[in-house]
Design a protein that fits this description.
Layout lengths: L2 H23 L5 H14 L19
Helix pairs in contact: 1-2
């Protein structure tokens, strides 16, 4: 399988999982609820998931 096809398949799985979670839960819940359910769906679809990874951020105020 070509790399583009592999990546398209992963993308399709991610979008499909997000749509499934949204259909099941509907709008208005805390983000943490969607995150937990999306993680479940992605793992169920055979994808590796890492949640809430630390991200270095540089913030400065210019005045």
């Amino acid at each position: 399988m070509m790399e583009k096809e592999r990546l398209n398949g992963i993308t399709e799985s991610i979008i499909g999982a997000a749509i499934e979670v949204h259909r099941a839960l509907g709008p208005g819940l805390p983000e943490s609820a969607y995150e937990a359910c999306l993680t479940f769906e992605l793992v169920h679809r055979g994808l590796k998931v890492e949640q809430q990874k630390p991200l270095p951020v540089v913030y400065s105020i210019r005045r």
